[in-house]
């Protein structure tokens, strides 16, 4: 009996009020994972005994049923969110976020959603009042309020969102500039030496304009690398930024720093967990002094991969400031983008590494602050900016979709995808703001998956493994209540989504409450001759592409007759909406 892992997920699709376009993706989702394996694997759950239906070969059929009485978990409505790297300020893309295509591309994320602007590794990410200020120059801060009144790109609530129109030649010049800057940023990454980056008042206005017009809530990570001689955080520049944001009545949540476990590499001195906790308490005090942000949310410490030294840092932080933050944040990248291969994305051992890392974080929180929410605030398929035609290809979707299932199953409250648009190859849209494969995958997730997770029962009739062979689960099944916001389906419907990493097709027979129901199939496959390397996808055989700058294509399902066996092609990802199940767990919010 080969291992089969099932996951049940639920998410919320884009409501009718959502702007047409790409950002509709950010919806809730949640998942329960049930593992079915060989009897020799202690602690695993056995498959339910079932009889073989007549005429079906036992070695290929998988029987699937769902417990429709009650959900096993409910995740945040912000479950799927986005991240922007501040390098967009550096390389010029920030000005183009106000293009019609960019607003449309972000609107698909569907509120409620989060847009995180992460500080990353810039030693001097500071805010000044105009673009003439040198990096780290705070001499202009006293005049910031008078200057900001003249900002011609600030969001005017009465006049609505302003959409910038750029000639094609400007976009072409920007792509050339960004390509040059990409080489500079790569050099900085490899040498671990980073140039200063100045955030002007105009830049902040543009960021907020983009988030607000796209229906996203902005979280801004303040720079924690400004240190006093006693190694405490120097908050003077952050205070000017907070005061300016408050003067504009910007609704922003806050964070401090990024990957504090790497500070020694960046600034030549380390910050332990205790000191980091004191820094967060200092930031909370600043927020409470400013009426606009006295009740603002604060997140952190956004640690890196939870190795032994990082866990020690987190423990020190939680002892001091565990009650100060509204959620604990961390990051995970699966593969070094400099050495990744397409076959890496098919390895089940790699897919499961995230689960082990999550348990380490949960263990610390259960010790110091039981019940504290956890966010995976930076997740990408590859580190070091990714690899062209790999981390932005169809193959990367296996890791991405499995990430959503694993984390919802383990109770992670929010997953922030790195990144919507940046200098690397982990993004969701390209430099023409055309959607990449993970964009379409995320859009389907938002449209079809609701926040309630349902338990599944799977019985797999497979060949026995050869003696000594390690069996890893290559067929992963998730199920949720169908999103309440998808008006194509009545409440009580159920959505399955399935990852098939086998190089052969698999057959699934719906049983129990799912038997003899009409099913809508959404099968995503690579489009074109590049196969798994493809940067384009097809839905049920039809290639997906934007209709125009502001219009998404219709995502048409393929209806399957009641009782039909689901045939899952090899190396594919798919969604199946089981209509009119009238599941008790899915009737009400």
Based on DSSP secondary structure assignment, what is the total number of beta strands? 25
How many domains? 1
Structural class by helix and strand composition: alpha/beta
Q: What is the arithmetic mean of pLDDT? A: 77
Low-confidence stretches: 1-59, 120-159
Distance between the termini: 37 Å
The CATH superfamily is Glycosidases
The CATH architecture category equals: Alpha-Beta Barrel
- State the assembly state of the protein chains: single chain
Strand residues, percent:
15-25%
CATH topology: TIM Barrel
What would you report as the Rg, rounded to the nearest angstrom? 24 Å
Global outline: globular
Name the helicity range.
25-40%
GO cellular component, one term: extracellular matrix
Protein name: Inactive heparanase-2
Organism: Calypte anna
GO molecular function: hydrolase activity, acting on glycosyl bonds
What are its keywords?
alpha/beta, TIM Barrel, 11-stranded mixed sheet, 8-stranded parallel β-barrel
Task: Explain what the structure shows.
Strand 13 (374-382), helix 11 and strand 14 (414-418) form a beta-alpha-beta unit. This protein has a single domain (63-124, 157-586), classed as Alpha-Beta Barrel (TIM Barrel). The radius of gyration is 24 Å and the shape is globular. Helix 9 (308-321) packs parallel to helix 10. The chain has helices at 87-91, 100-107, 144-148, 168-191, 201-213, 236-247, 263-267, 273-289, 308-321, 348-368, 396-409, 437-448; strands spanning 4-9, 31-36, 61-66, 73-74, 80-84, 114-117, 125-128, 197-200, 217-222, 252-256, 298-303, 327-335, 374-382, 414-418, 449-453, 456-460, 475-482, 494-500, 506-510, 519-526, 537-539, 542-543, 558-560, 566-568, 572-578. The strands form 4 sheets. Strands 1, 2, 4, 15, 17, 18, 20, 21, 22, 23 and 25 form an 11-stranded mixed β-sheet that branches. By secondary structure, it is α/β, with parallel strands linked by helices. InterPro entries: GH, Glyco_hydro_79. This is Inactive heparanase-2. It comes from Calypte anna. GO terms for molecular function: hydrolase activity, acting on glycosyl bonds.
């Amino acid at each position: 009996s080969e291992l089969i892992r099932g996951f049940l997920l639920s998410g919320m699709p884009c409501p009718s009020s959502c702007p047409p376009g790409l950002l509709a993706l950010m919806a809730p989702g949640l998942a329960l994972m049930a593992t079915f394996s060989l009897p020799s694997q202690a602690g695993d759950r056995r498959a339910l005994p079932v009889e073989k239906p007549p005429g079906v070969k036992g070695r290929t059929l998988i029987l699937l049923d769902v417990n429709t009485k009650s959900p096993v978990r409910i995740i945040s409505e912000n479950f799927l969110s986005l991240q922007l790297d501040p390098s967009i300020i550096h390389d010029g893309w920030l000005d183009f976020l106000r293009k019609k295509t960019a607003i449309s591309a972000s609107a698909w994320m569907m509120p409620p959603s989060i847009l995180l602007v992460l500080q990353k590794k810039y030693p001097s990410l500071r805010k000044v009042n105009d673009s003439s200020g040198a990096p780290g120059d705070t001499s202009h801060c006293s005049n910031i309020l008078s200057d900001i009144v003249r900002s011609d790109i600030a969001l005017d609530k009465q006049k609505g969102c302003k959409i910038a129109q750029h000639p094609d030649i400007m976009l072409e010049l920007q792509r050339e500039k960004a390509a040059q800057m990409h080489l500079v940023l790569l050099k900085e990454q490899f040498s671990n030496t980073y140039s200063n980056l100045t955030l002007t008042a105009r830049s902040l206005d543009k960021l907020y304009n983009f988030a607000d017009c796209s229906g996203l809530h902005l979280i801004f990570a303040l720079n924690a690398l400004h240190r006093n001689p006693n190694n405490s955080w120097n908050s003077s520049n952050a205070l000017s930024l907070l005061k300016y944001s408050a003067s504009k009545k910007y609704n922003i949540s806050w964070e401090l720093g990024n990957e504090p476990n790497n500070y020694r590499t960046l600034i030549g001195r380390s910050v332990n967990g205790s000191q980091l906790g004191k820094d967060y308490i200092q930031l909370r005090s600043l927020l409470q002094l400013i009426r606009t942000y006295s009740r603002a949310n604060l997140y952190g410490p956004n640690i890196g991969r939870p190795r032994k030294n990082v866990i020690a840092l987190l423990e020190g932080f939680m002892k001091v400031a565990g009650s100060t933050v509204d959620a604990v944040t961390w990051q995970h990248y699966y593969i070094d983008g400099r050495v990744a291969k397409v076959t890496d994305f098919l390895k089940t051992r790699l897919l499961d590494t995230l689960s082990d890392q999550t348990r380490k974080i949960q263990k610390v929180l259960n010790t110091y602050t039981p019940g504290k929410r956890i966010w995976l605030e930076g997740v990408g398929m590859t580190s070091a900016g990714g690899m062209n035609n790999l981390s932005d290809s169809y193959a990367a979707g296996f890791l991405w979709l499995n990430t959503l299932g694993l984390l919802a199953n383990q109770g992670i409250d929010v997953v922030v995808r790195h990144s919507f648009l940046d200098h690397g190859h982990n993004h969701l849209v390209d430099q023409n703001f055309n959607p990449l494969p993970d964009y379409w995958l995320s859009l389907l997730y938002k449209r079809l998956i609701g926040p309630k997770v349902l338990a599944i029962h799977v019985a797999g009739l497979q060949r026995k493994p050869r003696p000594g062979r390690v069996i890893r689960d290559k067929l992963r099944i998730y199920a949720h209540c169908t999103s309440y916001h998808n008006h194509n389906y009545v409440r009580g419907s159920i959505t399955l989504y399935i990852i098939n990493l086998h190089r052969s097709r698999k057959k699934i027979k719906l049983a129990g409450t799912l038997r003899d129901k009409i099913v809508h199939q959404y099968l995503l496959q690579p489009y074109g001759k590049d196969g798994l390397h493809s940067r384009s996808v097809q839905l049920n055989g039809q290639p997906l592409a934007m209709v125009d700058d502001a219009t998404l294509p219709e995502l048409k399902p393929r209806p399957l007759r009641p009782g039909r066996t689901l045939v899952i092609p090899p190396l594919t990802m798919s969604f199946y909406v089981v209509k009119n199940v009238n599941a008790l767990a899915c009737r009400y919010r």
